[in-house]
Specification:
The chain has 14 helices and 12 strands. It is of the alpha/beta class. It has 2 domains: 242 residues, 3-Layer(aba) Sandwich (Aspartate Aminotransferase, domain 2); 132 residues, Aspartate Aminotransferase, domain 1, CATH 3.90.1150.10. Helix 1 packs antiparallel against helix 2, helix 2 runs parallel beside helix 9 and helix 12 packs across helix 14. It is globular, with a radius of gyration of 21 Å.
Length: 382
Amino acid sequence: MNYHLNTKCVHGKNEKKTVENTGAISFPIYQTATFAHPDVGCSTGYDYTRSQNPTRAQLEKVVNSLENGKDTIAFTSGMAAMNALMELFQPGDHIIASEDLYGGTIRIFNSINTKNGIEMEYLDTSDTASLINKIKANTRAIFVETPTNPMMNVTDLGEIAKITKEHQLLFIVDNTFLSPYFQNPISLGADIVIHSGTKYLGGHNDSLAGFLVVVNEILSEKLRYISKTTGAGLAPFDSWLILRGIKTLPLRMEYQQKNAQIIAEWLEKQEKVKAVYYIGLPSHPGYKINKKQATGSGSMISFHVDCEETAVRILRKVQIIQYAESLGGVESLITYPMLQTHADVPEAEREAKGINKTLLRFSVGIEHIDDLLYDLEQAFTE
């Protein structure tokens, strides 16, 4: 049976768990480094936790069912997943990426991958005409975030998929912001989906994790070999924490989105707010495209205020909302991208993208909306 996503979050595809026959409702934590062999030349399917572990395997099955992939590999963090992903490429390869990206992604592209001979080129991936003109003989992949971090730009995934198929390129999508609950890039033509599982999948700001979801056996074999060789597989206990978090993904995403819509509309009315970037607002330039390819708008909002003093005052005065990095958890967090997520991006590049002293990024949590609005009102007050 093809279960609905809400059911998959709790049970995966409800496949028989050959490693677990006690009837435990919560999948066990197999906290072991190694596994005994039943006989010479025989294996239970598990030999050493760096290669695979039953708890991690169960998590991978659940995430894979949510993203409709062929296989999913779990890593110790989103950046560990990104590092493994980039090992697919060789010196001299050219990769096109969205020009607005998470600062950690820019850092690994520019400081690690470029050093290793990979040519990175950043473009407005919503402009497909100019993108086609940038494809070269050595182009190997197009990497897209949608919506982007932190400016919430939206790319038409279906249009990019047509281009990558025509030119035989890998199509890679970071789906962290909307999660598989609201968006399924593989169904729209992506070859690889990457997640920071730390964010919405885990949902409680208590564990780091990363995922690569792939569409075919060739990519699965390559990335599993890379994971085993480099040793960044997710630990059993962290796998269990993410499994537990995913069970409530639909409930959290719906409630956080409801709060975010109200807050985005409230921000639009504030005199000290000069621009609001939330893809659930009809005024957002990517609103129609997002409606076409996703079932929701998520709970990430960025906004520009009138001056640096206002931005700093808000960060200092919020009480329920916490001034902290990260996103996607049940707690509302507000971030200063210039000093935090994008601190390593050169100032000129940041400024050109609008990541300046007046930009704040807000991850809306599950607190009561009245309390969140009150907290914002008092933080805005001089």
